Amino acid sequence: MIVFEHVDKTYANGYKALKDVSLSIEQGEFVAIIGLSGAGKSTLIRTINRMHDITAGKLTVDGVEVNSLRGKALQKFRRNIGMIFQSFNLVTRTTVIKNVLAAKVPELPLWRVIFGIFPEKDCLEALEALDKVGILDKAYTRVDQLSGGQQQRVALARTLAQNPGIILADEPVASLDPVTAKQVMQDFKRINQELKISVLINIHHVDLALQYADRVIGISGGKIVYDGSAESVTKDVLDEIYGGKLEEAV
Ligand SMILES: Nc1ncnc2c1ncn2[C@@H]1O[C@H](COP(=O)(O)OP(=O)(O)OP(=O)(O)O)[C@@H](O)[C@H]1O
């Protein structure tokens, strides 16, 4: 369970990106975070794995206060949280399986990493993760020979190989065409439902957010202005989240 209690985030330049954020996310929820560019979506999800430190309030994950974590405890904590980026963050000049196995590196002795000799169990888990996202047949293909959608699935498989309890995804479908974006959203949904992994996605596509997420959190100017079910998102709610600018844009 992720709990924000009156959380603020002020960047070093004095900019207040999160203002008095309070919310809690149960294990296994699928949450879409929507809002204008600069609203604070990335900041919000990046505080959860402590890519950004909060500056006031309290943030706990499964009862652990995130800001109190240091060294090995922080590393271990982060192993439970997968992160997916818009740009996939893969090593494109090597194979899919090697990218997925990268998830296992923190647990391995240095000699295994240097020689690239992975335990059979890790190789099987990496192949299983690829199977879960439907690209097992690409295991030995170089990443730069894959489409954007396939690359995002490799990133998802790498995250799954980490056995996370939570997946944070920062604009995971922003650079994909509409058909591929839907397929990747379906992957997230399936993983969320079958493996009960909590999924938090920052997304600019309101239609996809409403179609795939169970819960929607709307942010405007660093404040939560909507937090409820996807079905209850009305035009008025969207006007509040987007300051009435959504209609102008379509
Ligand atoms: N390192 C930083 N230092 C100062 N200000 C920052 C920093 N990172 C982000 N900000 C500011 O904080 C605000 C929120 O940024 P954030 O990236 O969280 O927004 P976002 O909703 O994810 O936007 P986008 O949809 O464009 O990714 C923005 O005004 C941004 O300029």
Automatic annotation (TrEMBL):
Pfam families: ABC_tran. SUPFAM superfamilies: P-loop containing nucleoside triphosphate hydrolases. GO terms for molecular function: ABC-type phosphonate transporter activity; ATP binding; ATP hydrolysis activity. The keyword Nucleotide-binding applies. CDD domains: ABC_PhnC_transporter. Keywords: ATP-binding, Cell membrane, Membrane, Nucleotide-binding, Phosphonate transport, Translocase, Transport. InterPro entries: AAA+_ATPase, ABC_transporter-like_ATP-bd, ABC_transporter-like_CS, ABC_transpr_PhnC, MetN_ABC_transporter-like, P-loop_NTPase. Gene3D superfamilies: P-loop containing nucleotide triphosphate hydrolases (3.40.50.300). GO terms for cellular component: membrane. The keyword Acetylation does not apply. NCBIfam families: ABC_phnC (TIGR02315). This is Phosphonates import ATP-binding protein PhnC. It comes from Anaerocolumna cellulosilytica. The lineage of its organism: Bacteria, Bacillati, Bacillota, Clostridia, Lachnospirales.
